[in-house]
Amino acid sequence: MSVFYKRLFKFPMLQQKIFPGDLFFFLKEKPHFSNSNATASEDKKGSTFIDAVCSSAVAESLTIESKINHQVFHVGLFINETTIIHATTFHGVIKETIMNAIISTKPSIVEIYRIQCSDEQRQKAVKFAYSSLGAKYNDIFSPNCINSAGQKSYYCCQFICEAYGRDMFNPHRLNFMENGKILEYWIKYFDERNEPIPQGLPGSHPSILKSSKCLNLIKLFNISKELEISEEEINNKSNSNLNTDLPYICKQSHL
């Protein structure tokens, strides 16, 4: 086991454990989008896509908007302390270690949250995640979970909303605009797929999802470009609703 892996999962500062159904969010340190002339298909590493996602986080209300973090670009679900299931841009819904996801995606910050819900809801979400393995990526963000190829599919936060139920999280309508104009990236992105831009349709966004009242932060890791990890201590007083003692059945989950 690498030092990187040990530092991430030994939890040196906090004894808070990760349980099946907990969520992780990936954040960029300084998201910045530039309306370059590069087409969406030319961005093989996905960095432009990530920046465009960060720039598109606009809430429906001022109350939610004040809580939006424009660094957030991805979300997924833990099935045990070291393994996740998430909807990825290039491979669809997959299972892998959180370490592998960090290495391939290179976030600057990883935040881990616990959803305040019943154990039954949590178990149901994990089972849904397993049953969705192999589903494709919803590249056109359609509300009916069908991608441009007509396949059953999910984008990252849509996958979480389907797992736990959309009513658990803040409502959201898709936004591809910044400063009142559709971002050039999204115009090219949907032109390449011969699809209309779904501006204003029901959907979700990692930043909007993360601002939901049902989520409580339990762990925060800063990650350097060299993949050195440092964990920040979380002030549990700010998480007054946090249930650190999950039911026995959840703790013993071996799904």
Automatic annotation (TrEMBL):
Q: Which domain of life is it from?
A: Eukaryota
Q: Which InterPro entries match?
A: Papain-like_cys_pep_sf (IPR038765), Peptidase_C92 (IPR024453)
Q: What is this protein called?
A: Uncharacterized protein
Q: Give the organism, scientific name.
A: Panagrolaimus superbus
